[in-house]
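Record type: monomer structure entry
Structure origin: computed from sequence
Chain ID: A
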Amino acid sequence: MVRIKKGDEVVVLTGRDKGKRGTVLRRVDKDHVVVDGVHRAKKHVKPNPMKGQTGGIVDKDMPIHISNIALFNPQTQKADRVGFKTLDAGRKVRVFKSNGEMIEA
């Protein structure tokens, strides 16, 4: 089971975007995710009339390593670590380490 999933709200812990909050858009691989509005880069794009794409410089969200982000805990309003707990029915769920609350979704 993964600690950080698509749709989770996360906080950046290190780097030039430290302290920024955003939503995970997608997982690139086991160790990298793309977060909305975090780790942006300028990309020079050629126009492509076949796709109806105009040329220019666009901002693109780049992948960030999961060690540099942490899940946002709405109760404490801070970044928090993630643990796992097995329920009575045998289902495994994610929980916040600080207060033991179950993470929705």
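Annotation 1: Residues 84 and 90 are 12 Å apart (CA to CA).
Annotation 2: Residues 9-74 form a domain with the SH3 type barrels. fold (CATH 2.30.30.30).
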